[in-house]
Amino acid sequence: MSRLRRRLLALALVCGCVIAFLLSPLFPFVRSLAVMGVYSGMHQRQSLLAEEGIRLHIPGGLATPEADWYPFVMTFTADAAYAAYTGQPDARLTILYNFPAFDLSRGCSRLYDPNSPYYNGFYGAYLVRDGSNAALAGGDPDEDAAAQIAAFDFFTLVLGDFGLTPEERVFDFTVTERASGVTYAGYEGWTKFQAEFTVNGSAHNAREGGVLSYLQYGAPGFGPVAEEFAPVEMHGIVCARYFPEWDAGVYFYVMGTSAELCRACDQEILSKSTLEAKP
């Protein structure tokens, strides 16, 4: 075999491997890691974290042996959209979040899988600067305000991109437990509350041509969905505290389809977060 033929054969094999990888369910996961690593870094540099010199580390899915959550927690700066949503021009919102791990045989996150215990789940933290901080500063967090932050996040930034319309939104919540003076992330004085709520689910049929969020979660791959965004019963845990040195409220949160999953995430991941100001 001539040298030229060997080179052409090697090139053909490489091209074949690349094409096979691009068509495999593994590709969306690798693409997500690459895209979100860069995108999250861009938003972190524009966030309240960077502005106030705050170090906030929340463990990702690699902190546990299970294939439960995405490998790392991401940052999203939602200042302009949140200000428009609240009608407060100076409102600020930085979101740290994580979502269910990819099913590598399907090429997408279990966020979409109604048969997974992680369906519709998220955890992370909100750093908020708006009118709700007055109540939080007084040690009495406004639970309705906290719920509205979560509703803004879920509807505007997640389900809205998937195609859920404002008319289809379902969001009802009830606080079931509340405790004050909780120690969390190295600080005392948090208020911790648990809630049950009904909200639209993430399951939907993949949109033709895709949407931007598919770069992050992959396109839905769990089969046809008879009722898109069907409401689902959820549980949530929130820890809230006001930090006067930053003029910001911090809300750690986890939401999932079972109280057990939320407690496990709280104990094994979220409560091990670290929060401090740069010297």
The tally of helices reads 8
C-alpha end-to-end distance:
66 Å
Low-confidence stretches: none
Helix content: 25-40%
Report the sheet-strand fraction: 25-35%
* Global mean pLDDT: 90
Which geometry do the CA atoms define? globular
How many β strands by DSSP?
11
Based on CA atoms alone, the radius of gyration comes out at: 21 Å
Secondary-structure-based class equals: alpha+beta
Q: Secondary-structure element sequence?
A: HHHEEHEEEEHHEEHEEHE
Write the layout of secondary structure elements.
Blueprint (H helix, E strand, L loop, with lengths): L2 H21 L2 H19 L3 H5 L1 E4 L16 E4 L1 H8 L5 E7 L3 E2 L4 E2 L12 E8 L3 H5 L5 H20 L8 E14 L2 E14 L13 H4 L13 E13 L4 E9 L2 H10 L5 E4 L2
Antiparallel strand pairs: 1-11, 2-3, 3-6, 4-5, 6-10, 7-8, 8-9, 9-10
Description:
The protein has 279 residues and is α+β, with helices and mostly antiparallel strands. 33% of the residues lie in helices and 29% in strands. The chain is globular. The strands form 3 sheets. Strands 2-3-6-10-9-8-7 form a 7-stranded antiparallel sheet. Strands 1-11 form a two-stranded antiparallel sheet. It is built from 8 helices and 11 strands. A hairpin with a 4-residue loop joins strand 9 and strand 10 (248-256).
